[in-house]
Protein backbone atom coordinates (compact mmCIF):
# COMPACT_ATOMS: atom_id res chain seq x y z
CA UNK A 1 0.00 0.00 0.00
CA UNK A 2 2.93 2.35 0.60
CA UNK A 3 4.00 1.89 -3.01
CA UNK A 4 0.47 2.64 -4.21
CA UNK A 5 0.39 5.81 -2.12
CA UNK A 6 3.71 6.92 -3.61
CA UNK A 7 2.29 6.24 -7.06
CA UNK A 8 -0.76 8.38 -6.33
CA UNK A 9 1.46 11.21 -5.07
CA UNK A 10 3.47 10.99 -8.30
CA UNK A 11 0.29 11.12 -10.39
CA UNK A 12 -1.11 14.05 -8.43
CA UNK A 13 2.10 15.97 -9.04
CA UNK A 14 2.11 15.02 -12.72
CA UNK A 15 -1.50 15.96 -13.52
CA UNK A 16 -2.84 18.26 -10.79
CA UNK A 17 0.25 20.19 -9.63
CA UNK A 18 2.39 20.66 -12.72
CA UNK A 19 0.92 23.01 -15.30
CA UNK A 20 1.99 20.66 -18.10
CA UNK A 21 3.72 17.31 -18.37
CA UNK A 22 7.42 17.16 -19.17
CA UNK A 23 9.70 14.34 -20.27
CA UNK A 24 10.83 13.50 -16.73
CA UNK A 25 7.36 13.39 -15.16
CA UNK A 26 6.02 11.42 -18.13
CA UNK A 27 8.82 8.85 -17.90
CA UNK A 28 8.42 8.46 -14.14
CA UNK A 29 4.66 8.21 -14.58
CA UNK A 30 5.00 5.42 -17.12
CA UNK A 31 7.39 3.49 -14.87
CA UNK A 32 5.07 3.99 -11.91
CA UNK A 33 2.06 2.79 -13.91
CA UNK A 34 3.89 -0.33 -15.07
CA UNK A 35 5.00 -1.12 -11.51
CA UNK A 36 1.48 -0.46 -10.20
CA UNK A 37 -0.12 -2.80 -12.74
CA UNK A 38 2.30 -5.52 -11.63
CA UNK A 39 1.55 -4.86 -7.94
CA UNK A 40 -2.21 -5.01 -8.47
CA UNK A 41 -1.86 -8.50 -9.97
CA UNK A 42 -0.54 -9.74 -6.62
CA UNK A 43 -2.84 -11.76 -4.38
CA UNK A 44 -1.70 -9.62 -1.45
CA UNK A 45 -3.63 -6.63 -2.81
CA UNK A 46 -7.32 -6.93 -1.95
CA UNK A 47 -9.86 -6.19 -4.65
CA UNK A 48 -11.43 -2.99 -3.35
CA UNK A 49 -12.93 0.02 -5.07
CA UNK A 50 -9.76 2.08 -4.60
CA UNK A 51 -7.68 -0.66 -6.24
CA UNK A 52 -10.08 -0.68 -9.21
CA UNK A 53 -9.73 3.08 -9.67
CA UNK A 54 -5.94 2.94 -9.33
CA UNK A 55 -5.80 0.11 -11.88
CA UNK A 56 -7.82 2.17 -14.36
CA UNK A 57 -5.53 5.14 -13.68
CA UNK A 58 -2.44 3.07 -14.44
CA UNK A 59 -3.97 1.66 -17.62
CA UNK A 60 -4.64 5.20 -18.87
CA UNK A 61 -0.90 5.53 -19.49
CA UNK A 62 -1.29 3.01 -22.32
CA UNK A 63 -2.49 6.01 -24.34
CA UNK A 64 0.82 7.76 -23.65
CA UNK A 65 2.74 4.67 -24.77
CA UNK A 66 0.74 4.52 -28.02
CA UNK A 67 1.44 8.20 -28.64
CA UNK A 68 5.18 7.83 -27.98
CA UNK A 69 5.48 4.73 -30.18
CA UNK A 70 3.52 6.44 -32.96
CA UNK A 71 5.77 9.50 -32.80
CA UNK A 72 8.83 7.26 -33.05
CA UNK A 73 7.33 5.53 -36.10
CA UNK A 74 6.55 8.89 -37.72
CA UNK A 75 10.03 10.19 -36.94
CA UNK A 76 11.68 7.03 -38.32
CA UNK A 77 9.56 6.65 -41.47
CA UNK A 78 8.53 10.27 -41.97
CA UNK A 79 9.21 10.28 -45.69
CA UNK A 80 6.99 7.29 -46.43
CA UNK A 81 3.99 8.00 -44.18
CA UNK A 82 1.23 10.21 -45.51
CA UNK A 83 -1.79 8.80 -43.70
CA UNK A 84 -3.66 11.23 -41.45
CA UNK A 85 -3.84 8.47 -38.84
CA UNK A 86 -0.25 9.31 -37.88
CA UNK A 87 -0.45 13.09 -37.90
CA UNK A 88 0.22 15.15 -34.79
CA UNK A 89 -3.48 15.86 -34.11
CA UNK A 90 -4.49 12.25 -33.28
CA UNK A 91 -1.38 11.83 -31.12
CA UNK A 92 -2.18 15.02 -29.23
CA UNK A 93 -5.74 13.81 -28.73
CA UNK A 94 -4.39 10.63 -27.13
CA UNK A 95 -2.38 12.70 -24.66
CA UNK A 96 -5.44 14.86 -23.97
CA UNK A 97 -7.51 11.74 -23.27
CA UNK A 98 -4.83 10.44 -20.90
CA UNK A 99 -4.74 13.74 -19.00
CA UNK A 100 -8.51 14.04 -18.67
CA UNK A 101 -9.01 10.39 -17.64
CA UNK A 102 -6.21 10.64 -15.09
CA UNK A 103 -7.52 13.89 -13.56
CA UNK A 104 -11.04 12.51 -13.22
CA UNK A 105 -9.86 9.22 -11.70
CA UNK A 106 -7.55 11.01 -9.27
CA UNK A 107 -10.48 13.16 -8.18
CA UNK A 108 -12.61 10.04 -7.65
CA UNK A 109 -9.84 8.54 -5.50
CA UNK A 110 -9.59 11.78 -3.48
CA UNK A 111 -13.36 11.81 -2.98
CA UNK A 112 -13.29 8.19 -1.84
CA UNK A 113 -10.50 8.99 0.64
CA UNK A 114 -12.66 11.85 1.95
CA UNK A 115 -15.63 9.51 2.41
CA UNK A 116 -13.48 6.90 4.16
CA UNK A 117 -12.13 9.53 6.56
CA UNK A 118 -15.38 11.29 7.49
CA UNK A 119 -18.22 8.93 6.53
CA UNK A 120 -16.77 5.39 6.70
CA UNK A 121 -20.02 3.60 7.62
CA UNK A 122 -22.49 5.81 5.77
CA UNK A 123 -20.58 5.58 2.48
CA UNK A 124 -19.84 1.87 2.54
CA UNK A 125 -22.67 1.07 0.12
CA UNK A 126 -21.19 3.59 -2.35
CA UNK A 127 -17.58 2.41 -2.11
CA UNK A 128 -18.06 -0.90 -3.88
CA UNK A 129 -16.06 -2.59 -6.60
CA UNK A 130 -19.12 -2.55 -8.87
CA UNK A 131 -19.54 1.21 -8.53
CA UNK A 132 -15.81 1.79 -9.04
CA UNK A 133 -15.86 -0.22 -12.27
CA UNK A 134 -18.98 1.61 -13.45
CA UNK A 135 -17.36 4.97 -12.66
CA UNK A 136 -14.23 4.00 -14.60
CA UNK A 137 -16.30 2.92 -17.62
CA UNK A 138 -18.29 6.16 -17.59
CA UNK A 139 -15.10 8.26 -17.43
CA UNK A 140 -13.47 6.33 -20.28
CA UNK A 141 -16.65 6.56 -22.39
CA UNK A 142 -17.06 10.32 -21.87
CA UNK A 143 -13.42 11.10 -22.60
CA UNK A 144 -13.44 8.83 -25.66
CA UNK A 145 -16.47 10.72 -26.99
CA UNK A 146 -14.71 14.02 -26.27
CA UNK A 147 -11.58 13.04 -28.17
CA UNK A 148 -13.66 11.61 -31.02
CA UNK A 149 -15.23 15.06 -31.40
CA UNK A 150 -11.79 16.69 -31.32
CA UNK A 151 -10.53 14.26 -33.95
CA UNK A 152 -13.53 14.84 -36.21
CA UNK A 153 -13.00 18.58 -35.93
CA UNK A 154 -9.31 18.19 -36.82
CA UNK A 155 -10.14 16.04 -39.87
CA UNK A 156 -12.79 18.48 -41.09
CA UNK A 157 -10.41 21.37 -40.53
CA UNK A 158 -7.74 19.63 -42.59
CA UNK A 159 -10.14 18.95 -45.46
CA UNK A 160 -12.01 22.28 -45.35
CA UNK A 161 -9.57 23.96 -47.73
CA UNK A 162 -10.45 21.54 -50.52
CA UNK A 163 -14.21 21.41 -49.84
CA UNK A 164 -16.61 23.65 -51.80
CA UNK A 165 -17.84 26.68 -49.89
CA UNK A 166 -21.48 25.54 -50.20
CA UNK A 167 -20.80 21.95 -49.34
CA UNK A 168 -22.83 20.39 -46.49
CA UNK A 169 -19.46 19.63 -44.91
CA UNK A 170 -19.15 23.33 -44.09
CA UNK A 171 -22.16 23.13 -41.78
CA UNK A 172 -20.73 20.06 -40.12
CA UNK A 173 -17.37 21.79 -39.80
CA UNK A 174 -18.93 24.87 -38.19
CA UNK A 175 -20.88 22.70 -35.76
CA UNK A 176 -17.88 20.58 -34.79
CA UNK A 177 -15.67 23.66 -34.41
CA UNK A 178 -18.16 25.33 -32.08
CA UNK A 179 -18.71 22.14 -30.08
CA UNK A 180 -14.97 21.48 -29.81
CA UNK A 181 -14.27 25.05 -28.67
CA UNK A 182 -16.99 24.88 -26.02
CA UNK A 183 -15.75 21.49 -24.86
CA UNK A 184 -12.15 22.73 -24.58
CA UNK A 185 -13.32 25.70 -22.52
CA UNK A 186 -15.39 23.41 -20.31
CA UNK A 187 -12.41 21.06 -19.87
CA UNK A 188 -10.19 23.99 -18.89
CA UNK A 189 -12.56 25.28 -16.20
CA UNK A 190 -13.30 21.74 -15.01
CA UNK A 191 -9.56 21.16 -14.61
CA UNK A 192 -9.29 24.24 -12.40
CA UNK A 193 -12.32 23.12 -10.37
CA UNK A 194 -10.88 19.64 -9.88
CA UNK A 195 -7.62 21.10 -8.58
CA UNK A 196 -9.51 23.20 -6.03
CA UNK A 197 -11.71 20.29 -4.95
CA UNK A 198 -8.73 17.94 -4.56
CA UNK A 199 -6.88 20.50 -2.43
CA UNK A 200 -9.97 20.85 -0.25
CA UNK A 201 -10.37 17.07 0.20
CA UNK A 202 -6.76 16.50 1.22
CA UNK A 203 -6.71 19.64 3.37
CA UNK A 204 -9.65 18.27 5.38
CA UNK A 205 -8.13 14.78 5.54
CA UNK A 206 -4.72 16.06 6.64
CA UNK A 207 -6.05 18.20 9.51
CA UNK A 208 -8.49 15.49 10.55
CA UNK A 209 -5.64 13.01 10.92
CA UNK A 210 -3.44 15.63 12.63
CA UNK A 211 -6.14 16.34 15.24
CA UNK A 212 -6.39 12.67 16.04
TrEMBL record:
Domain G-protein coupled receptors family 1 profile stretches: 32-212
Species this chain originates from: Podargus strigoides (Tawny frogmouth)
Principal subcellular localisation of the protein: membrane
Entry-linked Pfam families: 7tm_1
Regions crossing the membrane: 12-40, 52-77, 97-117, 181-203
GO molecular function: G protein-coupled receptor activity
Topology with respect to the bilayer: Multi-pass membrane protein
Localization terms from the record: Membrane
GO biological process, one term: positive regulation of Rho protein signal transduction
Keyword Cytoplasm applies: no
Protein name per its UniProtKB record: CXCR3 protein
SUPFAM superfamilies for this protein: Family A G protein-coupled receptor-like
Annotated keywords: G-protein coupled receptor, Glycoprotein, Membrane, Receptor, Transducer, Transmembrane, Transmembrane helix
Name of the gene this protein is made from: Cxcr3
Gene Ontology CC annotations of this record: plasma membrane
